[in-house]
Specification:
Structural class: alpha/beta
Number of domains: 4
CATH architecture of the largest domain: Up-down Bundle
Largest sheet: 7 strands, mixed
Number of strands: 15
CATH superfamily of the largest domain: Rhodopsin 7-helix transmembrane proteins
Subcellular location: Membrane
Helix content: 55-70%
Strand order of the largest sheet: 12-11-10-9-13-14-15
Strand content: 5-15%
CATH class of the largest domain: Mainly Alpha
Main location: membrane
Membrane topology: Multi-pass membrane protein
Shape: flat
Keywords: Membrane, Oxidoreductase, Transmembrane, Transmembrane helix
InterPro entries: Cyt_b245_heavy_chain, FAD-bd_8, FAD-bd_FR_type, Fe3_Rdtase_TM_dom, Fe_red_NAD-bd_6, FNR_nucleotide-bd, GPCR_Rhodpsn, GPCR_Rhodpsn_7TM
Number of helices: 30
CATH topology of the largest domain: Rhopdopsin 7-helix transmembrane proteins
Length: 846
């Protein structure tokens, strides 16, 4: 696997799965945190001291896993509340103005079914832990009956003293039996077994094979969740897990070692009393159960409403169009979908279909491709239209990724075969002059890829209408239709009729293209178009088709956006500004306080001050040295930098950022030497390792002086090389390309010199004085060093942002963008950005 493939895979991961992974990571952290918090609470609780004496930490594990079970049972129903998700999708654009955050959030809602599965797996896992812990507890409760003269034996017999002192809910069991009779005599035992059976049935019937082949089995067994939740609410109602109530009268920390002297010792005259814990599952489940109940009531009411089938149109390529009207139905917006149920075929089977009609039309239509058993049977039932029509039920509409089409400046719509259906309602909506004037959308690039000419029938008519109605809006709609397979008859017909003004198959002015689209060339031309605007233009790519096509377009979008990123030659300067800003915001405050007061506030602050100062300044020195090396390679070996960008750009920067703080934490904080700090001296006199000759000299020469002189020498070499090239150019005939290359190299070298100059002004005098001081220690040099030269490095810290703004246009543009964002609330950019959105079977990949 090549480096480019690894980088592209990583970018695809960020685009497709980052939102989901972050959300799942937060959800996992919450699960672990709840488990640990509940475990430690029961492990340390004095109320459960004697219960732990009987069953050890079995109670802690059982209660911790029970809390995680309640938390996940709270979440399991929320992802399947379709109306709730649609409401959030409807409200989100109205309250969230940042488009990236909105799309980030919408991706999470698009993957609600996957999250539902993850929560189901978590319920299985925590159930296994909970059952295992209670099996251990049950065995331990039984074994306690065989102990004598121990604290556990005394606790087991306390019920003879008082019923309130009973802590063991399990009596003595005949060793010749399995001992499960007592378990089935408790509410927790019966409901626990029912819960396990329900969970096994629901999980085993949720596999892909059963869902696709035996949907009714999946549907019916999944609704056992009603019994599951009822048993879960009743599971802890008996209160078998008991806690001590009289802690003040009977302190277990004192009385536990004196268990033989209870009732005789003056400190433990009263026996411990226990009470069962109250059930808590109902508090977790009432909210989601209420929401899901409202969801099902709303779906049931919708399913009872009468649906009038207005028309049934049979198209070629096994596609039927069903037009219907329904009272009290929310008008479907472009790109949304509905669920359809046919009572004759299956009373509980719902299938999603994209709405292909516009919101302005007086009917709702869907196009159904007859490829499965259900769709083929439905097509047979609709053949008798308008007589003997089957009863249909409609649920919806619900949102889809296509809702986001009108939040872009331009969109690329790619459909393959029947995958063109999500765009039918979008284009019909745009056809309305009122809608076209109000939406943000300014450019549409439509691609339709078909393998046979029979697919053109129903959608080509819509394109012809759009072509006529949008003639005045030049450049608004650009469409390209591709035919990937054709017969000899079709090829002969094209050759004979090609001179016609309109296409032979579609009747459009734009001719059908044969083969597959070259998206690389097309996307580049789209990104390079001049829209005569200074604002940033966002272009969304929507695709509904096979997975290979979706992946191809995703990769291409990332590569297109990476081109603008790879052309950013000033990225490392931005990193330098960030760390210099951190010095100003954090480290400089220590120095200013020291200069104002003449001392540091406390000796305890010396170690953090030294570590922070050394780490940040070494970070600046190393970054500047590597910037000089990288800029030299970029000027004279640009192909090398481009080919190995990860190894020569990202990895060195990452290593430097990690190395500096870790190195000084090791030798300042963890190194075994005794520091002697002076709070009235800058940096408290320095770290103790500096007084050791080998380590101190190695740090100073290896990390400090060497990197400063590397920066100095590379800048001198660049200047000499450019002067020499300029001298040679006077003696030969120079082409325009070579002259342009020299000017570009000179510009990059001047930028580097301008940035490196404050570093050299600050660090070369300081390094020179320190080096002389090491070999010839004098009071005058020590005074100059401690009074003046130690503050020289702040020169480059304070002047770097201004130099970057003056000499680097890219940095200046970033500052202008930030200024406009803060003071005017908007970004000003010129580059197109392309975002990929995938539509697949009315659900989303992204």
């Amino acid at each position: 696997m090549s480096l480019q493939s690894i980088r592209l895979w990583f970018r695809l991961f960020l685009v497709n799965d980052l939102a989901s992974i972050l959300f799942l990571f937060i959800w996992l952290i919450i699960n672990i945190s709840l488990f640990l918090a509940q475990f430690l609470s029961y492990h340390r609780s004095r109320s459960y001291f004697y219960l732990r004496a009987l069953i050890y930490d079995g109670v802690s594990i059982a209660r911790a896993s029970a809390l995680c079970l309640n938390f996940n049972c709270l979440l399991i129903l929320l992802p399947v509340c379709r109306n709730l998700l649609s409401l959030i999708r409807y409200l989100l654009p109205r309250f969230v103005t940042q488009s990236r955050f909105r799309r980030f959030t919408i991706r999470l809602f698009d993957q609600h079914v996957e999250f539902h599965r993850c929560v189901g797996y978590a319920i299985c896992f925590w159930s296994l832990i909970h059952v295992g812990a209670h099996v251990y507890n049950y065995e331990r409760f039984i074994d306690v009956n065989n102990e004598h003269d121990t604290l556990a034996a005394v606790l087991n017999l306390l019920y003879l003293k008082s019923p309130e002192s009973q802590v063991n809910p399990v009596g003595k069991v005949n060793p010749k039996t399995l001992g499960v009779g007592i378990m089935f005599g408790t509410t927790a035992g019966i409901t626990g077994v029912i819960l396990c059976l329900c969970l096994i049935l629901m999980v085993s019937s949720s596999t892909v094979m059963i869902r696709r082949s035996f949907y009714e089995i999946f549907w019916f067994t999944h609704h056992i969740f009603i019994a599951f939740f009822i048993c879960l609410i009743l599971h802890g109602i008996q209160g078998l897990v008991k806690s001590q109530t009289n802690l003040q009268e009977h302190n277990p920390d004192i009385c536990a070692p004196l268990y033989r002297e209870w009732s005789t010792s003056p400190q433990c005259q009263i026996y411990p009393r226990f009470t069962g814990s109250k059930p808590a599952s109902w508090m977790w489940l009432c909210g989601p159960l209420g929401l899901y109940l409202l969801e099902r009531i709303l779906r049931f009411i919708r399913s009872l409403q009468h649906v009038d089938i207005v028309d049934v149109v049979r198209h070629e390529s096994n596609v039927i169009e069903v037009r219907f009207q329904k009272k009290a139905m929310t008008t479907p917006q472009p790109g949304q979908y509905v669920y359809i149920k046919c009572f004759v075929l299956a009373k509980f089977e719902w299938h999603p279909f994209t709405v292909t009609s516009a919101a302005e039309e007086d009917y709702v239509s869907v196009h159904i491709r007859t490829v499965g058993n259900w769709t083929k049977n439905l097509a047979k039932k609709l053949e008798k239209y308008p007589e003997d029509l089957p009863r249909l039920s409609i649920d919806g509409p619900y949102g889809s990724p296509a809702d986001d089409v009108f939040n872009y400046d331009g969109v690329v719509l790619v459909g393959a075969g029947i995958g063109v259906t999500p765009y039918a309602s979008i284009l019909r909506h745009i056809r309305s002059s009122k809608a076209a004037d109000n939406i943000r959308l300014r450019r549409i690039y439509f691609y339709w890829i078909c393998n046979t000419t029979a697919c053109y029938e129903w959608f080509a008519q819509l394109l012809q209408e759009l072509e006529q109605e949008l003639r005045d809006r030049i450049g608004f709609l650009t469409y390209k239709i591709y035919l990937t397979q054709w017969s000899m008859r079709e090829a002969r017909a094209v050759i004979e009729n090609n001179p016609d003004e309109r296409d032979l198959w579609t009747g459009l002015q734009a001719k059908t293209k044969y083969g597959r689209p070259n998206f690389d060339v097309d996307f580049q031309s789209i990104a390079d178009e001049d829209w005569k605007t200074k604002q940033r233009r966002e272009i969304g790519v929507f695709v509904c088709g096979p997975k290979p096509l979706a992946k191809q377009l995703q990769k291409l979008c990332i590569q297109m956006n990476d081109k603008s990123a790879s052309n950013n030659e000033s990225q490392v300067y931005g990193i330098l500004i960030v760390f210099n800003s951190f010095i100003v915001a954090v480290e400089l405050s220590f120095t200013l306080y020291f200069l104002h007061e003449g001392t540091i506030y406390s000796e305890h602050l010396c170690t953090p001050w030294i570590t922070l100062n050394y780490s940040l300044y070494l970070l600046n020195i190393l970054l500047m040295a590597w910037t000089s090396i990288e800029r030299y390679l970029f000027i004279y070996h640009e192909q090398l930098i481009t080919q190995y960008r990860i190894y020569l750009h990202y990895i060195p920067i990452l290593v430097i950022i990690l190395y500096c703080p870790l190195f000084y934490i090791g030798i300042v904080v963890l190194y075994p030497c005794q520091p002697v700090y002076h709070v009235d001296v800058y940096l408290c006199g320095g770290a103790c390792y500096q007084f050791e000759q080998v380590l101190g000299l190695l740090d100073w020469v290896g990390n400090g002086m060497t990197m400063v002189w590397v920066t100095f020498m590379l800048n001198v070499i660049l200047i000499i090389r450019h002067v020499y090239q300029r001298f040679r150019m006077r003696r030969m005939i120079i082409t325009a390309d070579r002259r342009s290359t020299w000017h570009r190299s000179a510009k990059l070298s001047v930028q580097l010199l301008a940035i490196a100059l404050p570093y050299m002004i600050a660090w070369i005098p300081y390094c020179t004085v320190v080096t002389i001081q090491i070999f010839q220690n004098t009071e005058q040099l020590a005074y100059l060093l401690s009074t003046f030269f130690v503050y020289f490095p702040y020169i480059q810290v304070l002047f770097l942002p201004y130099i970057c703004i003056l000499f680097i246009p890219e940095i200046k543009q970033k500052f202008c963008i930030l200024y406009n964002k803060i003071w005017h609330g908007k970004f000003v950019r010129r580059h197109n950005q392309i975002h990929a959105v995938v539509l697949r079977q009315n659900t989303t990949l992204l």
